[in-house]
Amino acid sequence: MRFEERKTENRFSVAAAESQAESRTVGGAARDLSALNAPGKPRSTTHPADRFDFVALHPPGDRFRPPLMESPAPPSRPPACVALVARTHWLVGGIVLVSLGLLRWLTEKFPVEFTARTYFIAGGFAALYCLTGLLVWCGAPTGRFFSRICGLIYLSRPRLGSHLWEIMDSHEFQTHFTGKPPPPPPL
Question: What are the residue boundaries of the structural domains of the chain, listed by start?
Fold first, then answer.
């Protein structure tokens, strides 16, 4: 049976896909299999059998499995509670910088002047909050200490400050700074 006839007869048959994969490996020895996956040739999406080219062309995956690593790679993202605290610190640092620029722009035309010390102190606060967010995100032990120091300003807003303070007291937040992975959840 030709491919065109099979396509019209049963478009979504798994058996048709398997038989075509067999014909490409067993009976199609004279056929150039490298042309099937040529980068310039567009793949046909009209028949599901065309999606099974990889079945016959690649050996089982067990032979090419990479060896197990001795130490697992660290996760690229911290837990959600840690990310919330870090983003809060970054947000406050960004707001300090934006406020500093806005203050400079608004007072430019008025006779009010701020000394360089004012900008230095405000810039230091912004840098402290941004650095604290980075230390918390990365899990540095000093990040926990600086997070507590920077968290004092949040306590003036009880709904925000109390929530963040409880997060900083949580077990998941504390284990992020020890370097040990948290235990798996019970099944």
Answer: 3-64, 80-176
